[in-house]
Amino acid sequence: MNPNPAIKGRGAQLNTPNRFFQLSHEMRDDFLEFCAKEGEEADKNKTLYLEVFPKTIVNKVDSPDVGMMYSMNMYQGCEHGCIYCYARNSHEFWGYSAGLDFERRILVKKDAPKLLEELLKKKSWQAHPIVMSGNTDCYQPAEQQFKITRQCLEVFLKYKHPVAIITKNALILRDLDILKELAKDNLINVNVSITSLSEDTRRVLEPRTATIKKRLETVKILSENGIPVNVMLAPIIPSINSHEILPLAKTVSEAGALGIAHTIVRLNGAIGEIFTDWIKKTMPDRADKVLHQIESCHGGNLNDSRYGTRMRGEGEIAKQINDLVKLARLKYFKGKSMPKLNTTLHEQYKVGQLKLF
């Protein structure tokens, strides 16, 4: 019997040490073997929801190559378990691992709607689009229980404030009623992440996300209801989904998407170790090839923190990927574009209703 069986339904297969801690916890092979022989569970693989109490909910984004000025996250950690997720490293700031802890220790901010409303009512606040899910998905499984994202959308609607959403979960359709109201005043756009047309690829890369079929249906339904949709082909991973750029672009355009965006995968911080461990267990036949091709896009490293190149990469493989995306835009999105969000209404609604004078 294999003393190290795959952890089902999870992306990461280990907990990397937290860089801020001197001590680390290790699951030893002899303990796992003992549990296997005794028929005991070494790891119950349960998700825990832990409430936290932040003082603010909206963050200013200073990065020059991220297309947002402000973001907010109702949850820290994400049960979707996407193996490549850049947000994993942020879980270390909360005292957890970027590996399995990121997927199984979900921090819940129940006060988010109240904090958001306090900000939007401030006389000093000037309307700028706020992106929900700048770090972790606002429609991850926890949202089914807590409904914090829906409450925040109600606040945005009340104060006629522009908001953008990034998600890979069809749960967003639950809130179609609010999204349609926001769309009437051009206060909403949605970015749906679709990284592959293959369910086999989706299951190993993003184990607890909505199926590809559900995501394409989401793009179609949102578009048919007048809600602008951009599709994130992100990240592009050489030799895993890089061959799908053109068919992906064609499919999402036909579903109603107005545009596409992409990044090339980079594995900063603990993500390099987590991804390497995962791919050697999941795709051993091409693990070295994929890792070397990722390195070739980032100056010989798996990680890349250089502004200007970290998102698009460099070298021949990165150039091929970027050229394919340009071709896809020309071929499938000619004459399409995402509308600019409306920032002109909020000042009149700062008290929650239209000012009369």
TrEMBL record:
<protein>
    <submittedName>
        <fullName>Radical SAM protein</fullName>
    </submittedName>
</protein>
<keyword id="KW-0411">Iron-sulfur</keyword>
<dbReference type="InterPro" id="IPR058240">
    <property type="entry name" value="rSAM_sf"/>
</dbReference>
<dbReference type="GO" id="GO:0003824">
    <property type="term" value="F:catalytic activity"/>
</dbReference>
<dbReference type="GO" id="GO:0051536">
    <property type="term" value="F:iron-sulfur cluster binding"/>
</dbReference>
<dbReference type="InterPro" id="IPR006638">
    <property type="entry name" value="Elp3/MiaA/NifB-like_rSAM"/>
</dbReference>
<keyword id="KW-0408">Iron</keyword>
<dbReference type="GO" id="GO:0046872">
    <property type="term" value="F:metal ion binding"/>
</dbReference>
<dbReference type="InterPro" id="IPR007197">
    <property type="entry name" value="rSAM"/>
</dbReference>
<dbReference type="Pfam" id="PF04055">
    <property type="entry name" value="Radical_SAM"/>
</dbReference>
<keyword id="KW-0479">Metal-binding</keyword>
<dbReference type="InterPro" id="IPR040086">
    <property type="entry name" value="MJ0683-like"/>
</dbReference>
<feature type="domain" description="Radical SAM core">
    <location>
        <begin position="61"/>
        <end position="301"/>
    </location>
</feature>
